[in-house]
TrEMBL record:
It comes from Asanoa hainanensis. PROSITE patterns: ABC_TRANSPORTER_1 (PS00211), ABC_TRANSPORTER_2 (PS50893). Belongs to the ABC transporter superfamily. InterPro entries: AAA+_ATPase, ABC_transporter-like_ATP-bd, ABC_transporter-like_CS, P-loop_NTPase. One of its GO terms (molecular function) is ATP binding. This is ABC-2 type transport system ATP-binding protein. Residues 25-250 form the ABC transporter domain. It comes from the Bacteria. Pfam families: ABC_tran (PF00005). PANTHER family: ABC TRANSPORTER, ATP-BINDING PROTEIN (PTHR43335).
Amino acid sequence: MRGRDACDPRPSPPSHPAPSVRAVIEVMKLTKVYGRTRAVDDLSFTVRPGQVTGFLGPNGAGKSTTMRMILGLDRPTAGRATVAGRPYRDHRAPLHAVGALLDARAAHPGRTARDHLVALGQTHGIAPSRADGLLAEVGLGDVARRRVGGFSLGMAQRLGIAAALLGDPAVVVLDEPVNGLDPDGVLWIRTLLKRLAADGRTVLVSSHLMSEMAVTADHLLVVDHGRLLADTSLDALLDRERVFVRGPRPDALRALLTGCGATVDDDRGGLLVTGLGVDAIGVAAAGQGLVLHELTPHRASLEQAYMELTTTKERA
Ligand SMILES: Nc1ncnc2c1ncn2[C@@H]1O[C@H](COP(=O)(O)OP(=O)(O)OP(=O)(O)O)[C@@H](O)[C@H]1O
């Protein structure tokens, strides 16, 4: 009983429901090359409404560059990105289609927070009262008439989020929105993102903080070196079964399980197996007459799942 046929087939992932084109972000074979750096490398994914999609990866993974291309701020070397069925630049009233926060310090430092939002709103016929309401909502009501140049990073982030929401957009794209926020602010943005998704909006939020995404996102896009490592629900990533297995013939066991398509790592005197469940391992070992002294399921933390994902793909 050797090879993949000897092992229980793993269930195929659930298919996604057909997305409403109204608010979908589509990234198709997107590539961006800066000199010798492939910042984004043949990236394809779809971001759907009604959930928070975390865009996760280490520093320099290509998250900001991808977001800039989605928002028409960088020209792709190859491939394309659309929002609600068309490139961002083709939207006649972009503030209503997509709200974005890429750089919290982008607001003119000499303007007051209120003037910044009112001026932005004027480009789309948005009433000043909407700016006032949003400033109160993001916790800047008391400093609405202070100049932005004197704002802390956290205050600037809150203003950037107010600007992103000004046009009541169906799609929200935020690049590292928790940067500079205090614990209250982090909690606030977490709640806000979940509410936006519950309203049926499409929410794409980047972070290099696994812990933050673990409590905020429903779905994860994991990138590294400009490439997509995973496009998965948070639950599916965490539910990936890992099994600790120990027996007197670890080398034979490793060869068997690797042949069954599992990833096998040394761990505390035994083997840590990803990609096969306890039943499949038991059946495969019995088929080869291999004795097992231990066979224990492990649920990975998000950090473990992420580290495993990045190191496994780098080795491949
Ligand atoms: N304008 C540019 N010119 C040259 N190289 C760039 C430029 N913008 C980004 N890069 C490079 O592209 C790569 C991806 O950068 P990017 O900012 O997209 O990553 P990131 O995932 O957003 O990182 P971080 O979490 O640190 O913000 C990096 O190697 C970066 O140095």
